[in-house]
Amino acid sequence: MKLKGKIAVVTGAGQGIGRGIAEAFAHEGADVVINDLTADDRTELVRKNIESKGRRALVVAGDVSLRADVERIFDTAWKELGPVDILVNNAGIETIVPFTELTDEQWDDVTRTNLKSEWMCSQALCKRLIAEGRKGAIINIGSIQAARVLPGRTHYAPSKLAIEALTRNISAEVGAHGIRVNCIHPGLIDTPMIRWVLESPDILPHVVAQISLGRPGLPCEVGAVAAFLASDEAAYVTGQSLYVDGGWVGK
To answer: What does the sequence similarity comment in the record state about its family (predicted)?
Structure first.
């Protein structure tokens, strides 16, 4: 087990990629703090799935774009499960809006949730790890749109590309403390966020034709990569951004 004895916080873990990562971590031996905006049937299902693997699971609802909620999430994790070793910044939102119609509020909502939250969660964890002299690993979740232009995402794409710079800069500053920071850019992954693409007979064939492996990916496949980056097997990997996209960018 790559992550035996580790404790991880996964944001946006109630569904999709976050759920896939949380369950992959449990499979590899980690206890998991499941964060989402609300505690509901989705987070309860993830909790049960993790506990069925013999691991501890804790649901802590909160908005990771708010400082007070971020601090509470980590305080609760430390108190209930123990010191956190791994953070996955997965929480994110996407809207599709033509550039000339994009409002201030839409820009702020997306960039706050997708970028500011990753900075705040990373900072909160790093302060605790450094104060206690502990090592750790952070995995930021970006998007294929850091490299691919898709219409209507003038606010979303910059928030995801900026995560590459955030990853590099944090890794440079905390590496001396034994904290590694990497980024995963998922491609077309079978999640509720892109279900409308997967169910469209007009759109899906066009997108899949651009992917070398010829199919959408699965959340568990992103989870497997995240588990590697979080593990000691990746002890010399930091500041990197990896596309898990079936060859979409390279085709």
So the answer is: Belongs to the short-chain dehydrogenases/reductases (SDR) family.
